[in-house]
Amino acid sequence: QVQLVESGGGLVQPGGSLRLSCAASGATLDYYAIGWFRQAPGKEREGVSCTSSGDGGTYYTDSVEGRFTISRDNATVYLQMNSLEPEDTAVYYCAAESPGIKCGLYNFEYDYWGQGTQVSVSS
Prior knowledge:
- A hairpin with a 3-residue loop joins strand 7 (68-72) and strand 8.
- The chain is globular, with a radius of gyration of 13 Å.
- Strands 2, 4, 5, 6, 9, 10 and 11 form a 7-stranded mixed β-sheet that branches. The chain has a 4-stranded antiparallel β-sheet with strand order 1-3-8-7, with no helix packed on it.
- By secondary structure, the chain is mainly beta.
- It has strands at 3-7, 10-12, 18-25, 33-39, 46-51, 58-60, 68-72, 76-81, 90-97, 112-113, 117-121.
């Protein structure tokens, strides 16, 4: 069973950048799809980006397309976030599913979740 730990969150000004990390233990990520999700206060958790284990395909929700980039190695998945906006403020979670040949951005697709890391975008 894989355990996930997120890090890299913090407070940043609008237009700034952060890189989130999702470190895995208990298993390598080679056969897992990994998703990044976020939950803002008073809102439902939404899918932000994901990466598949099969073809390495990546997907982004429309609101972050062109600003966020997901990448991975066999132990860690990263989310590079550029041009951050106040609307990006949320707790960010990573999640894993296996087999993860093709990833998706729905919560129910994922079996394992990290504890979350806070991202705040404010001047």
